[in-house]
Amino acid sequence: MAYREVAIAKSLKLIEPGPLVLVATYDTVNDRPNVMTISWTMAIDWDGGIALTTGPWNYSYQALMNLKECVVCIPSASLVETVVSIGDVSGEEVDKFERFGLKALPARSTKAPLIDGCIGCIECEVEKYIEEYGIFILRASHVWIDDGCEDKRMIHAIGDGTFKADGETFDCRHLMADKLPPGV
Ligand SMILES: Cc1cc2nc3c(=O)[nH]c(=O)nc-3n(C[C@H](O)[C@H](O)[C@H](O)COP(=O)(O)O)c2cc1C
């Protein structure tokens, strides 16, 4: 499978649906990439702004703070058990790329890698950390999608340990054309 770079504006189509994501970081202490699962994310503007919720209770936090970058990857529904399991162990003790058979691909502008086999990946810089709420504000720097990814269904967390995959699509563009920015 191969990633193709697309415009920053396309990051909205990866984040706006509210998928369960994998956040890859680079752990300079163990000198290896790490990855965590995150369900609390949000698009915050049209220019690749993304908010995600985490904090010092996770090992990835220190890597996010140290290098001020990460890669947000959107896994497909066929990976749901792996994605949930990734969120159940800490990279402090375990090389999660090795444990879960993940392939790290070099990114363009981050030391954190792209994760092979996802619907898309967004290289991001950390703009700000809002400590009071444990919210990272990220800015996309490069956006990648894999047209060859066979399962394009995103995963959605329900909040009780159950998950849903994307289902029906409704094309309502004709009802909101004036609200759609160019390039999305
Ligand atoms: C389905 C699922 C969703 C999760 N969502 C979040 C989240 O939104 N924010 C967060 O901080 N942790 C979340 N976690 C927990 C982290 O993924 C988990 O603590 C992970 O082991 C952290 O890895 P690290 O210690 O290597 O950073 C989630 C876990 C699962 C299984």
The count of DSSP E runs of length 2 or more, i.e. the number of strands, is 12
Gyration radius, in Å: 16 Å
- Mind summarizing the main beta sheet? 8 strands, antiparallel
User: If classified by CATH, what would the architecture be?
Assistant: Roll
| Oligomeric composition of the shown chains | single chain
Shape: globular
Helix content: 10-25%
- How far apart the termini lie comes to 23 Å
Treating each run of at least 4 consecutive H or I residues as one helix, how many helices?
A: 4
Q: What is the string of SSEs from the N terminus onward?
A: EHEEEEHEHHEEEEEE
Task: Domain count, please report it.
Answer: 1
Small molecules bound in the structure, each named once: flavin mononucleotide
Overall pLDDT, averaged?
A: 97
CATH topology: Pnp Oxidase, Chain A
